Model the fold of this input.
Amino acid sequence: MSVVGLIAALALAASPFPDPWLGSEGLDVVQVSSGEAVTLSDHLIPGRFTIFDFGAAWCAPCHDAAHTLKGYLAVHPDVAVRAISLEGDPWDTAALPAAQEHLPGRGRIPYFIVFDPSGQRIYQGHRVNRALRRVDRRRQRANQASSLSK
Done:
């Protein structure tokens, strides 16, 4: 392969969009799938809230959601994010195994599935702020219950 051909191949292979989780160093964010099938229960963090974030680098709302989640994670160490990156052609997102397994309908993203520290699913949907409110409410209830038992 010529140098020009190699450069062209590398340019096509690189996504023109940055990873939404770029800049999340020091936060508990781990990519657990690039669209392949994934068993969510294998990635739950015992004793912590686990948010599964289905998104893609080409998805502007996914970048906004990741930004919101980064800020939230910075002040809530009891929350972990497990990212499922649905890359490739946006029109083919719904055909990816991870999307077919976990996303309703046509695979619209961003999409979040949230589990509480005991592993109970407490939210699934497209709204990151609703997901975080659900985490806050569940945390508040747990804190109230523990203070009542003292």
User: Anything to note?
Assistant: The chain has one domain: 18-148.
